[in-house]
Amino acid sequence: MRILYFSRDYTTHDHRFLTGLANTSHKVYFLRLEKGPHVFEDRPLPPEIVQVEWAGGTHTASLRDGLRLLSDLRRVIRQVKPDLIHAGPIQRSAFLVALTGFRPLISMSWGYDLLYDVDINPFWRWATRYTLHHSAAMVGDCDTIRHLAISYGMPDNLIITFPWGVDIHHFNVETSERSNVSTFSLLSTRGFEPIYGVDVLARAFVIAARKRPELHLSMLGNGSLASAIRQIFLVGAVYDRVHFPGQVTYADLPSHYQKSDLYICASHSDGTSISLLEAFACGTPAIVSDIPGNQEWVTPGENGWLFPDGNAEALASEILYALDQRQILPEMGRNARKLAESRADWEKNFPELEKAYALALG
Fold first, then answer.
1. Contacts with 123 (C-beta within 8 Å, 6 or more apart), sequence order
2. Are 361 and 83 in contact (CB under 8 A)?
3. What is the dihedral of CA 62, 44, 49, 71, to 10 degrees?
4. What percentage of residues in the chain have a pLDDT greater than 90?
5. DSSP three-state, residue 92
6. What are the angstrom distances between the C-alpha of 309 and each of 267, 304, 314?
7. What local confidence, expressed as pLDDT, does residue 124 receive?
8. Is 132's pLDDT higher than 70?
9. Rounded to an integer, what distance in angstroms lies between the CA atom of residue 114 and that of residue 218?
10. Helix axes 198-211, 312-324, angle to 10 degrees
11. Contact present, 267 and 273 (Cβ < 8 Å)
């Protein structure tokens, strides 16, 4: 079967899907809508995947590019002659495919498209309904996304839900890496953007670190709020206890989870958070915002804790509570790893995608 995989950019998630598809009998073509300002994935495409050159994929896409991209997408479809197109996020790549009239289209939600983008303006809500109406099937990573898709008109029986999961062999448990008793290490891996609540995390760390000198925080990545959060740490007089490693490669990422006592995320919006699953696979308990996507994975006191979204004081209290209860963290880490093995193993979850393809093809 000939598959055109059409995504917004080239991320770690795209690499995961394309690597899985490369190991099938399908002939797979990769189409990239845009090239964002940040490097998302440092690994090359699998050699079995054919990258299609077209009018997009060279810079950040905007609405004014729409007609040009739509015209060239029609050319790509005529050239590739796919049996199906697998496209997402919904209001971008999948919407463009829907506008061409191509069938069958499998729309893949990236979480933020239904959790956040759909509420940007009435046009995006219309584009969401239009795309789902023209989709033969839809793929999502959690029940929260499934329910939202249904609310925008996608029939329940045409939705395939499975966590995108992680490579549980790459992300594994190395207990010897854990920090010693003189420090308590927190880890954040999300981008420095408003949606991820990094400002909430920064304020919470200031509150907690002023009370407990053994607290240290490592913040991976970068983003538009970099200066603002650094200022929070400077004003709070805890800057010397925050480490900024920058963008970390996929190969080096597991060691950051493995040497941390807790994974922290204050995101305001998430489906199934891959970062959370990576932490769990490494045996690292988590404190995360109490939003629906996280509720599907975190059982308070068993593998982590939840705190009210946006509440820095509550997050600080949970961090201090976890520090006082650090003797139970190894057991919580083992619970987290077991959950990752049972529900977040990408090798086990990937075959669900073939079910979506079969569903779309009737």
1. none
2. yes
3. 20
4. 89
5. helix
6. 8, 15, 9
7. 94
8. yes
9. 30
10. 50
11. yes
What's the pLDDT at 177?
52
- Contact indicator for 259, 287 with CB cutoff of 8 Å: no
Q: pLDDT band at residue 41, thresholds of 50, 70 and 90?
A: confident
CB 69 within 8 A of CB 63: no
The span from the CA of 309 to the CA of 352, in Å, is 32
The two tokens of residue 294 are 């996280």
Asked if 267 contacts 116 with a C-beta cutoff of 8 angstroms, the reply is no
DSSP string, 164-180: --B-TTTS---GGGS--
Q: Which has more pLDDT, 269 or 149?
A: 149
Q: Given this model, what pLDDT does residue 182 score?
A: 82
Three-class SS of residue 107? strand
Alpha-helical runs (H) found in the chain: 12-22, 66-80, 95-100, 112-115, 122-133, 143-151, 198-211, 226-235, 253-258, 274-281, 292-295, 312-324, 329-343, 346-349, 351-360
Give the C-alpha separation, 94 to 264, whole Å.
32
Domains located in the chain, CATH noted: 2-164+347-360 (3.40.50.2000), 175-343 (3.40.50.2000)
DSSP 241-276: GEEEEESPPTTTHHHHHHT-SEEEE--S--SS-HHH
